[in-house]
Amino acid sequence: MGRYYHGDIEGKFMFATQSSVAADRFGSTHTEQNYVDYYFDEEQLPTIKEELDSMEESFKKVESFFKDKDSWSTQQQEEAGISKQEMSDYADYRLGVKIRDCILENGVCEFQAEL
Question: What pLDDT does 30 receive?
Answer without folding.
Answer: 75
